[in-house]
Amino acid sequence: MKDTEFIHGIIPPIITPIDEDEKIDEKLFRDQIEYIIRGGCAGVLVFGSNGEFYVIEDDEMERGLKIAVDQAAGRVPIFFGIGAISTKKCIKLAKMALANGAKAVSVLQPMYIKPDQRELYKHYKTIADAVAPSPMLIYNNPGRAGYGLTADLIVQLNEDCENIVGIKDTSGDMTLVEEIIRRTRHTGFRLLGGKDTLLFPTLVCGGYGGVCTMANVYPELVVSIYEKFVAGDIEGAREAQYVMNPIRLSMDKSTFPVAAKAMCKAIGRDMGVPYLPTLEPSEAGWAAINKALKEAGPLK
User: Are 219 and 12 in contact (CB under 8 A)?
Assistant: First the structure.
C-alpha cells in the first residue's frame, strides 16, 4: 500500500498576492496561508492554476514556496503545482520544490501539444522516477490543457510508479472519477476533486477531499462539506455544498482566475490584483459576485 495518509481533506490552490511590480507580497501571502490553516484546511497547494503559475518565474516560485513552508511550519503539508510543458522543466521544478520543503508535487498534463497516451506515460513516469521516492500527484485538467487523461493511463502509472500516489481531477466527469477510484482503491492511491461544485459527489464516490478555490474565501464552509461527510452527516454535507455552489458559480462571469482575488476583496480581504494581462472583474463580473454574496448572507 502507498503511504498517502497526508492526502485528505480540503487543500486550497492558494491565491498568489502580488505587489505593483508583480512580485509576491510576502505579508499578504503569509496572511492567506494563516487564514487557510485557521479555517481548518488540511494542506496548501502553492502555484496551482488558481495561483497563476503560468506567469510566475522560477526564482519567484522558489521564494514563494520557501515563504509558504516557513509559515505553515509543519502544521499542514505544502503541495507544489507544476504546469510546465517539457519533461525536463517539470523535473527541474519538482526537484527544486522537494528540496525546499514541499511534501509532494502535483503535475499538470502538458498544455498546447496534446500528447498521445504513449507520450503521456513516458512524461509522467520519467518525472516520477527522477524524484522517487518523493510523492507525486497527477493533475488532470482537460478544460485548461485541451484534452483529458484516461483511467487506463492513471491506473497504469499507479501500478508502475510507487511514488505516484494520487490525482487531482478537474474534469467534471464523474464516470471517470468513479473508474479511477474503483480501479485503484485497494492500492492506497487517492483522488482529490478539483471542481468545487462537485466536492460532495466526489466524496460520495470515494474521493478523499478536494483542491477547492473557494477555500481561499470561505475555508470553514468548504471544510464543513468534508467534515460533515466524514462524520456521517450526509444531509448536512449536501446542504453545505448547496450553499457554496451559487457563490462559486458567480465567479464564472470573470476571467479565470481573477474572481478569487476579487471575491476575497469583496469580503474585506485584500489579496492584490491579478497578473497582467488579466484585470479585475468587469462591472458584470463584480455584479455577479456581489449578488451571490448578498444572497448567501453571513457565512461565519
Answer: yes
Strand partners of residue 80: 46, 105
CA gap 214, 93 in Å, rounded? 26
Going through the chain in order, the beta strands assigned E by DSSP cover 9-10, 44-46, 78-82, 104-108, 136-140, 164-169, 190-193, 209-210
Would residue 139 show up in a list of annotated catalytic residues for this protein?
yes
Alpha helices (runs of H) in 115-191, residue ranges in sequence order:
117-131, 142-145, 151-160, 174-184
Integer Rg of the chain from CA: 18
pLDDT digits (tens, 9 = 90+) for 157-189: 999 999 999 999 999 999 999 999 999 999 999
CA 30, CA 231: separation in Å to the nearest integer?
31
Q: Quick check: 29 and 17 in contact, CB under 8 A?
A: yes
pLDDT digits (tens, 9 = 90+) for 83-135: 999 999 999 999 999 999 999 999 999 999 999 999 999 999 999 999 999 99
Q: Where are the domains of the chain?
A: 9-233
Cell of 11: 487543500
Q: What is the pLDDT of residue 300?
A: 56
pLDDT tens digits, 32-91: 999 999 999 999 999 999 999 999 999 999 999 999 999 999 999 999 999 999 999 999
Rounded CA-CA distance 261/269 in Å is 9
List 103, 168, 195, 228, catalytic entry: 168
- pLDDT for 256: 85
Q: What is the torsion angle, in degrees rounded to the nearest 10, for the CA atoms of residue 190, residue 195, residue 198 and residue 199? A: 50
Residue 168 among the catalytic residues:
yes
Catalytic choice (35, 139, 208, 226)? 139
- Biggest CA-to-CA distance, the chain: 51
Question: In the CATH hierarchy, which fold is given to the domain comprising 9-233?
Answer: TIM Barrel (3.20.20)
